[in-house]
């Protein structure tokens, strides 16, 4: 029984990653160039369904993580536990919605190739806890995003900022992980090597997640890149996942890394507040969404870095709900934008999108109900 | 009315030419302000009265530019009307035939397309003209370039598909200028490599269009920069809208200054005028200010004691406006808050129309105050824009004024030129239009540059305003044809009444809401006759009812009455009346206490629940209680002028002399042609409307009574006509009223469909039976009328019975929650001046003002002239006010009623601080069809022109086409429409119209407008005599 | 099913009925097929009617049992060790009459709005928000713990804000909504902080663990210092929603929404939400004389401010807004004096009368005519004597204070809003420069360019 179940899980995981990967390869080879939407949505749907299958299979088991592959520094090549089961369908849903509503113009060969490749890498991130694999996958998720930012007209500046931030994060991540693996702080009395590793990984997480003072690339990406790139690059919150895997205590090492987490959570709360405050004075919809997204994702990290199970639960809730809400807002604004050009919030006759709304919505973000409060500014309903 | 001292600041010695220029500019600007007065007495007038000197269609377009409003309905609305057949293709063809450009323009595209064909195609088929971004989106996201339009005729479709001249698909010479455009072009060009058939045709055409536009250059429109600092600043930084800062303050001050008694504490010093009062209150050193207004108290201190005109001159200098732009600057400054400015102007002109107490309002004061505030705000905004620093660097730091004037010039220089549509948008438009008119890719490639430019210009020139104008003409034409055909059909059918004495005659107001009432009355039988005349019945008076505290005018707005009439209690009831008054005063004072609110307020639960849940029952109980308490007491009008009594202080005379009364009676009887046949009982019925929670209540009242209720006029008229002395005098002049004819006055409540009769008890015993029969008939007619009205109310079921309908309308009139107590003049569209028998039996759907006029008794046209003078401007005013309020319900109309907030008892604002909302609220006009009043006159073209010539107000309306004029020949029945300065004979399109037995069988089950039909029951046909 | 279960069911019904209507109207509307006007009004009205009847039945049962409170435990949000955040409703002598009163009023406004908003584009939205409001109100009133109370309080704030901004196309309405919302949020911090304090003090947010359960005879079970801090925080929270000085500026501006919503929010229910919370925590206030004094000072100050300012208002709705504010100030003072029944009666009285007044405010011209006839003359503009007695200079000063609404806008704006925005703008500017530096593009691209 367990054997078949494990086999199924492994197969589903493989399909989840392989489907977009193969799709990407097919696109690169020129398959269905003319109207690729049906194809890519089908690919994304396969991933979504198999990720849902993982969740279902996982919910049948009794809560023991499913692991496969070699073990390194407390991580496994494939690791499916409660976190994966919850987050993988979420990520798949985000990826699919992006492909589903993307304007036809955004679905040309190269960008779809990149998008699918990035998706495959992201899915893979959420299926592993192997430190070295994580480093590789970070690279794999960052590269296509960087390329698509660079190829966006007028996205040169954003691409440069993105590149600077990401390479810094990657370096920190790589060095930190290596140090952590060499001297795991939770295994024995921590030496300086392990604690330096912990700090470096924490730094990488901060940069990759846009935590103050390393946040600048986050809103820049939203204003410089296409919405699909920005959402695909930020919404899965790869860095949060990494933090969970490498820093926060779980079955293998229940203590986690203490001091780094405290600093992380403090900085995250500062970022959440600061992002919301910044959003108040933004004047176009894109940077508004960018700053809001930054604030909300920092909130997630703030919760993750806490110590109580309650905080962890809350963080997951915010992760999924704010992620879906912001993706929704982002996609809607993308759709509007592609029809009507850039949306400014201060136009006097923009039927409801008045200058007051950003402030309005952001003062609500202070207490975390941004999406509820934002809804009236849409002229529909 | 308190007498006020109007001397004060404002006038400077007129010798100063600058002051003169300012005064002239203000006078000029005042024309464009809304003319609406205090809302308690709502008078309908042409919203664009100031533009009446110009032809209608030019004027609405010009006004729309000036006010930033819509000139016509939206194009989408017209297309809907086209789709549902309200506009027919024949109407569009006819309108195009009249268009000079279609008749004279030389063909386009190398002779392949006539201008007319182009226009026709653009009118009948929607073409998307959107922003560049939207066009790009359409091009890439939809299949517009992959297939031909679906609404093409088979020939054109065939022609396009079979175009064999598709040469090689070439890339356009150079890339398009705009990078986004170029990316989109590549995306669209890439898609069609090996297409065939329709797809190939569409894509080939697209290539040709892109190549064509690449030959010519995109238009850049250099717009005149605006003159106001606010607009210039907003163009740079839309966050810095100085009006948003200044207006709340100005609104507060104006409202406080004009308040008629909402506030318990009136603005101190307002008897000295707006500028002085505002200066006194705001110039103090005490009190914090908002950031922008930090320097306002100082600025106000500086102008203390200066005449307003000097203040304006100084401010204009400081603001740096050159003298040649003063007029435009002043116009725009006043229009920025035009509701309030208009109200101030109105009260300056007509202080007598202030509801409670006149205040010394002056437009010039308002302008001076506004400019001071504007300047202070502009200085602050300039600081925010970083202008000060630069000027300091330039060395001149002496005066603030230089800072501002440099701001003005610099911002004007920097004002962005507007770019026309981008290349792709132009190509897309060309692509769409080419398909519609059947130009193939080969045709386009064959055109030279000049031809291309001409074609593009022709398309661009026929923009949405031009299209909407033609749509509008077609829209009006359809209704005109429908009505004129019905009238033409009627000509052969209607017969004059035989000379039997009618059972009853009723004189109504001309109001179109009385049309259905008259029709239902006439359906009682051929011996019931009706007449229509302006509802003040030629009795202009100041009237004070028995419960009123002061007198109000009851006559058209253009007249100023010279007489007062007072309603007094009968001697027998005088004591009782006095007692009632004392009681009411006591009760009134008791409930005004503040303590009452705190703890006894729960008692209000009873009226709250009752009023909201059972409105009709509550109102009935209230009336019943008032009756039980003896509140209703018998009264009479004091009409007689006693000889030797001198006029009062305002020059008003109490009551009328016998000669004046006889004049008035004769005039009405002559106007309506009631000179020979009189029934035993003649009812004279004025009208008014009662509703609750309705600030615009008086807009539903009688227009001919200047927004008052016409009951007292009807009552006065009946009393006069019954007066023996008057009758003797009339008989001496040859107008004999039979001795057994009695007049009775009444008032129709157009909202609840009830008639109040006056002085019934005064009629002789011999007429008791006649009156009772008349009243009984009228009750039935009221119910029938209510039934017809209910078809328009969505909340009344279509299968409602007559009694239920009557109860429904009654409930509407007393319901606090009802925002549409009745629909007012909505749907008015025409005016028929003529003998009633010619239109009798025609179902006109409550859309026609019906004026009784007998061409037979009017040989020299004087009666027609005075009828036109009374009816023309009033009817056109009502019609055009509804017209513009529906055409732009926010710009010309008052928007939705829901947030309306009564301020100062003079007007309504939206919410807590907005401009005064003028015009009509949306709920009043939503079902209105905006068409110009179609005036049909039962008279020959020559006499109509002669009569119109003598009345300048009417002549202007006619010549500039603000009304549509039709002559209906009194003898031949021929119709002639006034077009371009002459009457053109009208040839009916069809001569059969629907025939029904009664009105109800025609209208029941429908909510929409209905075409005319012949109602047999109301007609006086052969075999119809009772 | 025993007696207790029936009462529990009734109490839940009071809450569930309006909540169900939110779903019944909201879900089809979300799917793009809103129910017809008639159906919408019937559903929402039916919800209120059901709530009202359930309230009356509960009241009858309670009265028969001598107002012994009934507590319904709906479950627990979370619990950690002995610390628990439970979801509880309480039916006692305060909450049940209040529920009857508020659902009754909601139902009435529902009946009014059904005709008043006929054919208005936002018809469904209005009724949906009304239902949300009713749900929030009942949740707040029936709350047996401070956490539940906070949830209801927030629903109230959101629905209120969205109704002020009902006319999305008008700048003023949106600005006013924004202003009200900002005030609410600032003051909500008080309630949130109070909730945290309560949890720390007694390990739970339940009112019965905080101060017995027998309103109005509860006794406070926490030390005086905690009681004082919590009370002050609650007073702070209540000030925003009940428009007390200096957080009152939003109230006259809030009259931007349609008249029925103004009536129910700013004449009747929302404006008294603060008073309700204070009444609910009366036992706590009794332990905290300092808070009581603060309450009296604020209440009387507000009453005085609103009274003077109200006298110069020239439009009906602002006048009524200030009249409401005066009364709510007085109610605060009454609560501060430690009274319990008097403020409750005052609240209900005032709410009913004021909503009638607001609902019929468009009849001002009509009423004025009646009044003139009754008094035999016009009531006179200069009827406030003080205005005339003062020397001219003082008159102008006082008038300006009143006309500028006590300088509230300026003071709050200058002291808080402007510096706050300046700070944010500067931060954003710095961000832009930093980004420009990072991205290597030329010079800072600020708004001045």
> How many DSSP E strands of chain C?
2
Main beta sheet of chain C, described?
A: 2 strands, antiparallel
* Biggest sheet architecture of chain A: 2 strands, antiparallel
Main sheet strand line-up of chain A: 1-2
Task: Calculate the terminal CA-CA distance of chain C, rounded to whole Å.
Answer: 74 Å
Helical content band of chain A: over 70%
Distance between the termini of chain A: 51 Å
The 3D shape of chain C can be described as: globular
What class do helices, strands and sheet pairing of chain A give?
mainly alpha
Shape of chain A: globular
Largest interface: B-C, 88 and 92 residues
Describe the structure.
The complex is a heterotrimer of chains A (about 375), B (about 1050) and C (about 450). With about 375 residues, chain A is mainly α. Chain A has a domain of about 130 residues. Helix content of chain A is about 70%, strand content about 5%. In chain A, a hairpin with a 2-residue loop joins strand 1 and strand 2. The longest helix of chain A is centred in the last third of the chain and has 32 residues. Chain B has about 1050 residues and is α/β, with parallel strands linked by helices. The N terminus of chain B is likely disordered. Chain C has two domains: about 350 residues, no CATH class; about 30 residues. In chain C, helix 10 packs antiparallel against helix 15. Chains in contact: A-B, A-C, B-C. Chains B and C meet through helix 12, helix 13, helix 26, helix 27 and helix 28 of B and helix 3, helix 6, helix 14, helix 15 and helix 16 of C.
């Amino acid at each position: 029984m367990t054997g078949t179940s494990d086999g199924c899980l492994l197969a589903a995981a493989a399909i989840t990653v392989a489907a977009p990967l193969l799709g990407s390869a097919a696109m690169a080879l020129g398959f269905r160039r003319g109207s690729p939407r049906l194809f890519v949505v089908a690919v994304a749907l396969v991933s979504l369904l198999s990720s849902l299958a993982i969740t279902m299979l996982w919910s049948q088991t009794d809560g023991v993580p499913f692991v496969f592959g070699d073990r390194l520094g407390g991580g496994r090549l494939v690791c499916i536990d409660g976190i994966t089961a919850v987050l993988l369908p979420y990520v798949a849903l985000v990826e699919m919605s992006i492909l589903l509503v993307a304007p036809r113009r955004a679905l040309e060969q190269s960008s779809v190739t990149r998008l699918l490749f990035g998706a495959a890498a992201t899915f893979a991130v959420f299926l592993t806890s192997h430190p070295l694999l994580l480093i590789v996958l970070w690279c794999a998720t960052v590269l296509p995003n960087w390329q698509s930012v660079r190829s966006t007209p007028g996205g040169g500046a954003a691409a440069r900022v993105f590149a600077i931030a990401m390479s810094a994060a990657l370096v920190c991540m790589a060095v930190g992980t290596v140090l952590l693996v060499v001297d795991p702080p939770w295994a024995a009395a921590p030496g300086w090597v392990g604690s330096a590793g912990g700090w470096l990984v924490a730094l990488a997480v901060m940069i990759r997640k846009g935590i103050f003072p390393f946040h600048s690339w986050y809103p820049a990406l939203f204003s410089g890149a296409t919405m699909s790139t920005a959402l695909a690059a930020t919404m899965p919150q790869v860095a949060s996942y990494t933090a969970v895997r490498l820093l926060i205590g779980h079955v293998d090492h229940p203590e986690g890394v203490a001091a780094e987490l405290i600093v992380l959570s403090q900085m995250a709360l500062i970022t959440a507040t600061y992002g919301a405050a910044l959003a108040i004075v933004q004047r176009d919809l894109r940077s508004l969404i960018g700053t809001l997204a930054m604030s909300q994702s920092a909130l997630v990290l703030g919760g993750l870095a806490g110590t109580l199970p309650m905080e962890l639960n809350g963080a997951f809730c915010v992760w999924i709900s704010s992620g879906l809400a912001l993706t929704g807002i982002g996609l809607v604004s993308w759709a509007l934008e592609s029809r009507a050009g850039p949306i400014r919030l201060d136009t006097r006759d923009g039927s409801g999108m008045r200058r007051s709304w950003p402030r309005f919505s952001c003062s609500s973000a202070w207490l975390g109900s941004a999406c509820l409060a934002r809804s009236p500014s849409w002229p529909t309903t | 009315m308190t007498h006020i001292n109007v001397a004060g600041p404002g006038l400077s010695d007129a010798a100063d030419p600058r002051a003169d220029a300012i005064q002239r500019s203000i006078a000029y600007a005042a024309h464009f302000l809304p003319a609406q007065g205090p809302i308690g007495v709502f008078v309908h007038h042409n919203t664009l009265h100031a533009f009446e000197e110009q032809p209608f269609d030019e004027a609405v377009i010009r006004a729309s530019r000036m006010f930033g409003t819509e000139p016509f309905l939206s194009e989408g609305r017209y297309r809907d009307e086209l789709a549902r057949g309200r506009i027919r293709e024949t109407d569009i063809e006819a309108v195009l035939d009249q268009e000079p450009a279609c008749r004279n323009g030389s063909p386009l595209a190398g002779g392949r397309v006539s201008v007319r064909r182009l226009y026709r195609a653009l009118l009948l088929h929607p073409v998307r003209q959107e922003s560049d971004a939207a066009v790009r989106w359409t091009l890439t996201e939809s299949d517009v370039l992959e297939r031909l339009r679906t609404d093409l005729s088979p020939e054109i479709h065939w022609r396009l598909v079979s175009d064999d001249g598709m040469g090689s698909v070439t890339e356009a010479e150079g890339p398009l200028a705009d990078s986004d455009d170029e990316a989109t072009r590549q995306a669209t060009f890439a898609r069609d490599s090996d297409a065939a058939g329709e797809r190939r045709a569409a894509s080939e055409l697209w290539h040709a269009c892109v190549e064509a536009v690449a030959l010519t250059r995109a238009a850049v429109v250099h717009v005149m920069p605006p003159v106001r600092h606010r607009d210039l600043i907003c163009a740079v930084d839309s966050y810095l809208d100085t009006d948003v800062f200044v207006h709340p303050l100005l609104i507060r001050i104006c409202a406080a200054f004009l308040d008629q008694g909402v506030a318990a504490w009136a603005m101190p010093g307002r008897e000295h005028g707006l500028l002085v009062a505002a200066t006194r209150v705001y110039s103090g050193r005490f009190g914090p200010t908002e950031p922008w207004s930090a320097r306002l108290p100082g600025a106000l201190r500086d102008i203390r004691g200066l005449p307003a005109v000097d203040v304006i001159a100084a401010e204009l200098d400081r603001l740096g406006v050159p003298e040649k732009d003063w007029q435009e600057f002043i116009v725009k400054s006043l229009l920025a808050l035009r509701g309030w400015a208009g109200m101030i102007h109105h009260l300056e002109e007509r202080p007598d129309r202030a509801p409670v107490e006149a205040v010394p309002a002056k437009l010039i004061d308002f302008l001076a105050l506004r400019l001071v505030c504007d300047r202070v705000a502009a200085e602050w905004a300039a600081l925010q824009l970083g202008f000060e620093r630069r000027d300091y660097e330039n060395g001149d730091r002496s005066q603030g004024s230089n800072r501002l004037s440099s701001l003005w010039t610099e911002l004007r220089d920097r004002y962005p030129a507007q770019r026309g549509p981008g290349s792709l948008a132009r190509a897309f438009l060309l692509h769409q239009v080419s398909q519609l008119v059947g130009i193939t890719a080969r045709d386009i490639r064959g055109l030279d540059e000049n031809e291309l430019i001409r074609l593009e210009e022709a398309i661009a020139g026929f923009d949405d305003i031009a299209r909407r104008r033609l749509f509008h003409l077609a829209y009006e034409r359809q209704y005109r044809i429908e009505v004129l055909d019905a009238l033409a059909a009627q000509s052969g059918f209607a017969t004059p009444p035989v000379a039997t004495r009618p059972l009853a005659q009723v004189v109504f107001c001309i109001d179109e809401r009385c049309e259905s009432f008259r029709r239902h009355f006439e359906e009682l039988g051929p011996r019931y006759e009706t007449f229509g005349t302006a509802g003040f019945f030629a009795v202009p008076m100041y009237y004070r009812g028995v419960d009123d505290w002061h007198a109000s005018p009851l006559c058209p707005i253009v007249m100023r009455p010279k007489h007062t009439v007072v309603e007094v209690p009968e001697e027998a009831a005088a004591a009782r009346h006095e007692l009632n008054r004392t009681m009411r005063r006591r009760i009134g004072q008791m409930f005004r206490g503040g303590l009452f609110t705190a703890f006894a307020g729960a008692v209000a639960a009873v009226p709250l629940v009752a009023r909201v849940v059972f409105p009709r029952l509550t109102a009935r109980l209230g009336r019943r209680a008032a009756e039980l308490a003896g509140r209703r007491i018998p009264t009479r009008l004091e009409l007689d002028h006693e000889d030797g009594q001198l006029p009062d202080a305002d020059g008003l005379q109490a009551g009328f002399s016998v000669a004046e009364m006889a004049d008035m009676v004769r005039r009405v009887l002559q106007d309506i042609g009631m000179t020979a046949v009189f029934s035993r009982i003649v009812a004279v019925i004025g009208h008014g409307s009662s509703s609750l929670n309705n600030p615009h209540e008086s807009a539903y009242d009688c227009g001919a009574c200047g927004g008052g209720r016409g009951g007292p006029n009807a009552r006065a008229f009946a009393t006069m006509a019954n007066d023996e002395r008057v009758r003797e005098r009339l008989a001496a002049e040859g107008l004999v009223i039979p001795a057994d004819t009695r007049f009775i006055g009444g008032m129709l409540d157009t909202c609840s469909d009830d008639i109040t009769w006056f002085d019934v008890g005064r009629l002789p015993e011999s007429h008791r039976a006649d009156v009772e029969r008349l009243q009984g008939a009228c009750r039935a007619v009221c119910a029938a009328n209510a039934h017809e009205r209910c078809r328009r109310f969505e909340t009344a079921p279509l299968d409602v019975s007559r009694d239920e309908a009557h109860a429904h309308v009654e409930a509407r009139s007393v319901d606090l929650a009802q925002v549409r107590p009745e629909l007012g003049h909505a749907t008015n569209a025409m005016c028929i001046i003529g003998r009633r028998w010619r239109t009798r039996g025609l179902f006109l759907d409550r859309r026609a003002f019906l004026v009784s006029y007998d061409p037979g008794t009017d040989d020299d046209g004087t009666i027609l002239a005075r009828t036109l003078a009374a009816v023309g401007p009033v009817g056109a005013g009502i019609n055009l006010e509804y017209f513009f309020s529906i055409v732009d319900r926010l710009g010309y109309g008052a928007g939705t009623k829901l947030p309306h907030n009564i301020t100062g008892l003079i007007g309504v604002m939206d919410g807590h601080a907005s401009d005064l909302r003028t015009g009509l609220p949306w709920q009043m006009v939503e079902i209105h069809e905006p068409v110009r009043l179609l005036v049909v006159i039962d008279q020959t073209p020559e006499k109509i022109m002669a009569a119109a010539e003598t009345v300048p107000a009417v002549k202007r309306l006619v010549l500039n086409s603000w009304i549509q004029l039709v002559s209906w020949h009194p003898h031949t029945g021929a119709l002639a429409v006034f077009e371009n300065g002459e009457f053109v004979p009208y040839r009916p399109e069809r001569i059969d119209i629907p025939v029904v037995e009664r009105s109800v069988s025609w209208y029941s089950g429908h909510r929409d407008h209905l075409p005319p039909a012949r109602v047999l029951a109301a007609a006086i046909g052969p075999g119809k005599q009772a | 099913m025993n007696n207790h279960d029936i009462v529990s069911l009734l109490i839940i019904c009071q809450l569930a009925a309006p909540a169900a209507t939110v779903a019944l109207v909201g879900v089809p509307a979300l799917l793009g097929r809103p129910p017809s006007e008639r159906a919408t009004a019937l559903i929402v009205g039916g919800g209120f009617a059901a709530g009202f009847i359930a309230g009356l039945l509960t009241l009858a049962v309670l009265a028969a049992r001598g107002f012994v409170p009934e507590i319904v435990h709906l479950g627990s949000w979370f619990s950690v060790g002995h610390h628990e955040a439970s979801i509880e409703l309480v039916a006692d002598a305060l909450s049940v009459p209040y529920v009857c009163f508020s659902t009754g009023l909601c139902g009435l406004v529902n009946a009014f709005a059904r005709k008043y908003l006929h054919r208005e584009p936002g018809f469904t939205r209005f009724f949906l928000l009304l239902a949300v409001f009713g749900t929030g109100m009942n949740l707040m009133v029936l709350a047996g713990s401070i956490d539940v109370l906070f949830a209801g309080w927030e629903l109230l704030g959101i629905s209120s804000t969205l109704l002020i901004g009902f006319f999305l196309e008008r700048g003023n309405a949106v600005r006013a909504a924004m202003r009200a919302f900002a005030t609410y949020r600032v003051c909500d911090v008080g309630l949130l902080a109070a909730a945290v304090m309560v949890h720390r003090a007694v390990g739970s947010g339940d009112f019965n663990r905080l101060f017995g359960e027998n309103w109005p005879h509860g006794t406070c079970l926490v030390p005086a210092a905690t009681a004082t801090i919590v009370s002050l925080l609650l007073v702070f929270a209540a000030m925003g929603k009940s428009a007390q000085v200096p957080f009152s500026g939003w109230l006259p501006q809030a009259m931007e929404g349609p008249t029925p919503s103004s009536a129910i929010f700013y004449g009747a229910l929302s404006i008294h939400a603060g008073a309700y919370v204070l009444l609910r925590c009366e036992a706590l206030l009794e332990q905290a004389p300092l808070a009581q004094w603060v309450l009296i000072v604020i209440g009387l100050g507000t009453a005085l401010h609103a009274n003077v300012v109200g006298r110069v208002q020239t439009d009906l709705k602002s006048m009524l807004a200030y009249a409401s504010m005066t009364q709510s100030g007085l109610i605060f003072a009454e609560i501060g004096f430690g009274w319990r029944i008097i403020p409750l009666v005052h609240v209900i009285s005032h709410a009913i009368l004021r909503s009638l007044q607001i609902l019929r405010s468009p009849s001002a011209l009509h009423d004025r005519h009646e009044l003139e006839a009754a008094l035999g003359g016009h009531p006179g503009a200069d009827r406030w004597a003080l205005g005339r007695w003062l020397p001219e200079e003082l008159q102008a000063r006082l008038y300006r204070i009143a006309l500028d609404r006590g300088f509230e806008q300026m003071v709050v704006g200058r002291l808080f809003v402007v510096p706050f925005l300046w700070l944010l703008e500067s931060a954003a500017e710095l961000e832009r420069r930093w980004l420009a530096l990072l991205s290597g593009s030329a010079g800072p691209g600020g708004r001045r360019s």
